[in-house]
Design brief:
This protein has about 130 residues and is mainly alpha-helical. The chain contains 5 helices and no strands. The longest helix is centred in the N-terminal third of the chain and has 25 residues. The two termini are about 30 Å apart.
Length: about 130
Amino acid sequence: MTRRIIPERYLPHVQGVLRIATALLFLQHGAAKLFGYPHVDMFNDLKLFSFLGAAGVIEVVGGILLLLGLFTRPAAFVLSGEMAVAYFGFHAFQAFWPIQNKGELAALYCFVFLFFAVAGPGKFALDRE
């Protein structure tokens, strides 16, 4: 018998906290693109009807849905796909290793969102599973 640091019955709670923290961190990307806050020089003069503008809309809408735990599985699936496109479309061609191509965050988000697409929202979600 192994002793766990956190008992298994708290797994849905930790899953919910991970979902909320991930959503809050991810929302910053969409907010920076669409609203200019927090300010990122790269997004100056960003057009809504551009590839990055569309990404910003997906990030804000998907981030809010994830934060609330509403339509978590489909929203997380779309966000995972967006991050796969971000990685393979913008980072992977620069170098093989994510640490070299600056794609670590896109790859990590991709897999975290894929986890939520499969596992669901955990606790503290508006969706009841």
